Write a sequence for this structure.
């Protein structure tokens, strides 16, 4: 049976030891911790149901996983403090972000 030396403890371990008998013990960064590597792809879309003007803020809120009111307040504050530059960015998002037709 092949053995490996655990660099932390100096103990030799081999296949068949530890919580996962088919995985060489002492190798890798997750020593007995299983991780789920399934990734879901989120797409940025303008909302067709929760819109006040064009659905850009609601789309960003859905994408970021925050309340839409937070995004709307941030957009208004950014418009005020940037002397209107954020309004130009909002208009660009309105033109470039596709609508969510799956709802």
């Amino acid at each position: 049976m092949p053995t490996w030396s655990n660099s932390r403890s100096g103990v030799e371990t081999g296949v068949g030891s530890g919580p996962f008998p088919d995985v060489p013990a002492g190798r890798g960064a997750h020593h007995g911790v299983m991780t789920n590597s399934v990734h879901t792809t989120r797409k940025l879309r303008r909302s067709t149901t929760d819109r006040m003007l064009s659905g850009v803020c609601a789309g960003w809120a859905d994408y970021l996983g925050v309340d839409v009111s937070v995004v709307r307040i941030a957009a208004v504050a950014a418009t005020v403090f940037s002397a209107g530059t954020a309004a130009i960015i909002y208009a660009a998002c309105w033109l470039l972000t596709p609508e969510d037709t799956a709802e």
User: Anything to note?
Assistant: The CA atoms of residues 49 and 86 lie 23 Å apart. Strands lie at 3-5, 12-14. The chain has three helices and two strands.
